[in-house]
C-alpha cells in the first residue's frame, strides 16, 4: 500500500471528523467521520468555502463564528493551535456540540498554507451509579 493510501485509510477510520482548508478557506478534504457527525458527504462539502456556512458554527452564546471570531481563520493568521467548544449545524438542521482542535499546516518553506480542524461530539457522558 502506498504511503498516501495508507494515510488516507488511517484518517478515514478515525472516529473524529477531520477536514482541511486552504488559505482561501476552501474545504479540500472531508473524512468519513466528518460525514457521519455532520450528515454532509464529502461530495457536498469538498470545494465549498467554509464561510458558506453549511456547518454554521456558533459559540455557546449563539454568536456565528464565521462572522465574529472564527478560530480556523485566526489559526491561519497567527499560527497558534486552538481548542474550542462550539456547535455545528447538522445537515438535518439540529445543533451538535463539538470539541474542535485546529492547527495550522505549513509549506516546506514555513509559510502557513491552510489549517486542519479535528472535531468530535462533545456531549455529556452519562455515568450509571453502581449497585
Topology (elements, then pairings):
Elements (H helix, E strand, L loop, with lengths): L2 H10 L4 E6 L4 E4 L1 H7 L3 H4 L25 H8 L3 E8 L5 E12 L5 E10 L10
Antiparallel strand pairs: 1-2, 1-5, 3-4, 4-5
Give an account of the 3D structure.
With 131 residues, the protein is α+β, with helices and mostly antiparallel strands. It has one domain (19-121): PAS domain (Beta-Lactamase, 2-Layer Sandwich), CATH 3.30.450. The chain has four helices and five strands. Strands 2-1-5-4-3 form a five-stranded antiparallel beta sheet. A hairpin with a 5-residue loop joins strand 3 (82-89) and strand 4 (95-106). It starts with a helix and ends in a 10-residue tail after the last strand. The model has no long low-confidence stretch (mean pLDDT 91).
- Put simply, the count of helices is 4
Major β-sheet profile? 5 strands, antiparallel
| Amount of beta strand | 25-35%
Terminal CA distance reads 50 Å
Helix-residue proportion: 10-25%
The structural domain count equals 1
Q: What is the arithmetic mean of pLDDT?
A: 91
Question: How does the overall form come out from the CA principal axes?
Answer: globular
SSE string, helices as H and strands as E = HEEHHHEEE
At the first level of CATH, what is the class?
Alpha Beta
What is the CATH third-level topology name?
Beta-Lactamase
Strand order, sheet with most strands: 2-1-5-4-3
**pLDDT < 50 stretches:** none
Quaternary state of this entry equals single chain
Structural class: alpha+beta
State the CATH superfamily name: PAS domain
Radius of gyration (CA) equals 16 Å
The CATH architecture is: 2-Layer Sandwich
Give a count of the beta strands, DSSP E runs of length 2 or more.
5
Amino acid at each position: 500500500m502506498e504511503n498516501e493510501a495508507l494515510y488516507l485509510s488511517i484518517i478515514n477510520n478515525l472516529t473524529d471528523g477531520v477536514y482541511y482548508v486552504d488559505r482561501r478557506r476552501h474545504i479540500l478534504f472531508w473524512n468519513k467521520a466528518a460525514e457521519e457527525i455532520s450528515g454532509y458527504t464529502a461530495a457536498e462539502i469538498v470545494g465549498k468555502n467554509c464561510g458558506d456556512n453549511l456547518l454554521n458554527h456558533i459559540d455557546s452564546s449563539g454568536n456565528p463564528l464565521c462572522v465574529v471570531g472564527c478560530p480556523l481563520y485566526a489559526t491561519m493568521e497567527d499560527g497558534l493551535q486552538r481548542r474550542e467548544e462550539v456547535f455545528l449545524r447538522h445537515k438535518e438542521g439540529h445543533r451538535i456540540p463539538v470539541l474542535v482542535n485546529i492547527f495550522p499546516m505549513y509549506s516546506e518553506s514555513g509559510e502557513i498554507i491552510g489549517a486542519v480542524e479535528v472535531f468530535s461530539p462533545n456531549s455529556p457522558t452519562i455515568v450509571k451509579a453502581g449497585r
